[in-house]
Specification:
CATH architecture of the largest domain: Alpha-Beta Barrel
Order of helices and strands: HEEHEHEHHEHEEHEHEHHHHHH
Strand content: 5-15%
Largest sheet: 6 strands, parallel
Number of domains: 2
Radius of gyration: 23 Å
Number of helices: 14
Shape: globular
CATH class of the largest domain: Alpha Beta
Distance between the termini: 52 Å
């Protein structure tokens, strides 16, 4: 089954590339963070699905929990992690375990962390000590969903899985964990990763719409640490050895080819069992960190990584970085894939996103979508606001390239690239 999952993922990428139209990205308040632009040897590691207050498997650490083992290892190497935690999967019943080695090993209808019928040993709701330790040691915590239920359908791998689907119900699930972290720990989460990266929901909504309402950035990853995949070897010790090496080898080989390979990257890891209920991360993480440290890397939280640059295609060496950085804090100027695309012409729809207030872009659009049960273009309400306020002529199509700029908002410029328009923007309007 693990081989099928691997083949399925590769096949999906090929089909998407050859058959499916290229994903179109729009200006958005929610950015999908996979990596950031930096020449400095700094990267981030994220750990999904914990915390886990059960021993490593196999247990070679005297009963110490997996999350404690991960935290000890990070501390040993002076590294900071980003823990993408859940709340509690204890309400995800009735259910039964799937086949070991399959994607449904912990539950056919729902996920159960750290394991089916052991839900009380995992999640922020049940692991107060581990959450306190993460925060006390300077790690970041992000929102992976209270019950870790996928947002929408995923028929290829999770054909029998229950999913949330509804926009408001998805927000409610995330909010429950968000409020738990605020009320119990005084900690405000700013990022989230959807369970199993399922983005599409019912009625045209997506995780991007949800995260915009939550004021979250979408935390993705650019490099797979491989700790979730099981070996097909039958001998448990040999399988663990193979799984551990499968986590270490790609990092070793990447660094051998290019010491700067991981600059600005986000590495995906598991804080839990793999599909065969082993925890190779407990035994591979130290070797991964050792390789990165020997190559001169600092391992920081994702939040710290964005201080290097919050963009994927523009770094601090860009002459306009400071203005773009400040502008991005208050206005919608970044595409959903976290790129600025500065040297491309700006459209009137994108200009409307720059000028319209967040209320028009986010709240009004979401309200209209909920009422109509239909998808509304990401720029629609921003364009309407600009037309209603006499800023953009009602006859101009949103996808038309900008040819003039309202003097109230811009200094004179004949450069209608995105860079030129942002440079001409009067910051007092931000």
């Amino acid at each position: 089954m693990s081989l099928l999952v691997k083949i399925g993922k590769k096949g999906k990428k090929i089909v998407k590339k050859l058959i499916t139209p290229a994903e179109k990205h729009y200006i958005s308040y929610t950015r999908r963070l996979e990596r950031v632009k930096t020449d400095r040897r700094v990267c981030a590691m994220t750990f999904d699905d914990g915390p886990m207050d059960l021993p490593c498997s196999p247990d070679k650490n005297g009963g110490k929990s997996l999350t404690d083992t991960i935290l000890d290892t990070l501390k040993e190497y002076g590294a900071k992690g980003t823990f993408d935690v859940i709340g509690d999967t204890g309400a995800n019943y009735p259910d039964e375990a799937g086949k070991l080695g399959s994607a449904a090993w912990g539950g056919i209808k729902y996920d159960h962390y750290p394991d089916i019928n052991k839900d009380d040993k995992g999640g922020a709701e049940n692991c107060d000590r581990l959450i306190h330790r993460m925060l006390d040691e300077g790690h970041q915590i992000t929102n992976h969903g209270y019950r870790h239920i996928i947002f929408g359908r995923k028929p290829f791998v999770y054909g029998k899985r229950a999913y949330i689907g509804d926009f408001e119900d998805t927000i409610a699930d995330l909010t429950k964990l968000h409020e738990l972290m605020e009320q119990r720990y005084g900690y405000t989460m700013t990022m989230s990763r959807p369970p199993h990266y399922v983005d599409k929901m019912d009625n045209g909504f997506t995780s991007y719409d949800v995260y915009t309402v939550m004021n979250y950035w979408y935390m993705a990853a650019s490099f797979d640490g491989q700790g979730w995949l099981p070996s097909t070897l039958s001998d448990p010790e040999a399988a663990l050895k193979a799984e551990t090496e499968a986590m270490i080898k790609p990092i070793r080989e990447a660094l051998a080819k290019d010491k700067n390979f991981f600059c600005g990257q986000i590495i995906f890891q598991k804080d839990g069992y793999n599909m065969s209920k082993r925890t190779p991360v407990a035994y591979a993480l130290g070797e991964q960190l050792k390789l990165l440290k020997e190559a001169g890397y600092e391992i920081v939280t994702v939040e710290e990584l964005t201080k290097e640059s919050p963009f994927e295609d523009v770094g601090r060496d860009d002459p306009d970085f400071d203005k773009l950085y400040e502008l991005s804090k208050t206005r919608a100027i970044v595409y959903s894939d976290n790129k600025l695309r500065l040297d491309t012409p700006m459209t009137y729809g994108e200009l409307a996103m720059l000028l319209a207030p967040r209320e028009a872009i986010v709240n009004i659009r979401n309200k209209m979508m909920k009422q109509s049960k239909k998808y509304i273009h990401p720029y629609a309400t921003a364009v309407k606001w600009c037309k209603d306020n006499g800023i953009i002529d009602i006859s101009i199509k949103p996808d038309k390239a900008v040819m003039f700029l309202p003097e109230k908002y811009f200094d004179k410029t004949s450069d209608f690239t995105r860079r030129g328009i942002y440079k001409a923007y009067k910051m007092q309007n931000a």
